[in-house]
Amino acid sequence: MVYTYEQAQEAAAVISPWLEDRTYLAIVLGSGFDACLSKIDLKHSIPYVELPHFPTTSVMGHSGILHIGTWDQQEVLVWSGRFHYYEGHSMQTVTFPIRVTKLLGINDLLLTNAAGGLLESMRPGSLMFIRDHINFQPENPLRGPHDPRWGPRFPDMNHVYDAAWITEWSHLAKQLEVPYHIGVYLGLQGPSLETPAEYAWFHQAGAHAVGMSTVPEAIVARQMGMRIGGISVISNVFNPYELADTTHEGVLEVVRTAADRTAGLLSNWFNQRQ
């Protein structure tokens, strides 16, 4: 499925009447992050099925609702639920909400996810602020016909993730005593989880955490000139000496447990942004 600029305009036209003339931050909530919604003064919610050209979400932990509201005086547009390549969606479908976000005039984007940690120093429930990524997914979302209205055909991928935001989050994490890391996220196709050999190889390749999302969204946002931040909750940590089975249910439980500290850090950050 290849979406057109006009289709994104149609979806944006349904959302735009609910936006005020203010600076919004768009947030994509990863698996288990719905707990953060309790921090938002919700003004309007739109199920994805009511948006033109949107499919439904099918993964546990992704409700498929767009929320508009205020989080500690920061106006936010929150995509609660994302589409994944492993569900059978095209990369154009996976990134369609980001295209729509840009056409709404929103330039700031925060991507969140649950990720498997590759460093022995990591602990489940800690945060990783993404400074770079490795695209290990089988398809690039920019593949196919090019529409110059989206941006350059060959976008530069240096400095994708905003360094100033990472600095601000790091300072806040220290003040709030939130365990954190700054690292490289590696995006995989999924849905099978990683083998021990794969974990070890990805670590040698320079990755610090692995997951099944975020990278295509960041690529598209970069093409469109958006300011991008990425935060992973480390849901499990690879230990070659103590291997334990990982389940999606277990990942969700860890992320839900860590949601309060993540929300607390973001609340403090939003207050500083005013």
In CATH, the architecture is: 3-Layer(aba) Sandwich
Proportion of residues in helical segments = 25-40%
* Shape category: globular
Query: What is the CATH T-level topology?
Result: Rossmann fold
Strand fraction: 15-25%
By CATH reckoning, the class would read Alpha Beta
Number of helices: 6
In round numbers, the mean pLDDT is 89
Write the layout of secondary structure elements.
Blueprint: H1 5-15, E1 24-29, E2 41-47, E3 65-71, E4 74-80, H2 91-103, E5 108-117, E6 127-135, H3 163-176, E7 180-187, H4 196-204, E8 209-211, H5 215-223, E9 227-237, H6 248-273
Parallel strand pairs: 1-4, 1-5, 5-9, 6-7, 7-8
Antiparallel strand pairs: 2-3, 3-4, 5-8, 6-9
Helix pairs in contact: 1-2, 2-5, 3-6
Describe this structure in words.
There is one protein chain. By secondary structure, this protein is α/β, with parallel strands linked by helices. The protein has one domain (5-273): Rossmann fold (3-Layer(aba) Sandwich), CATH 3.40.50. The chain has 6 helices and 9 strands. α1 (5-15) crosses α2 (91-103), α2 packs across α5 (215-223) and α3 (163-176) crosses α6. It is globular and about 50 Å long. The termini are far apart.
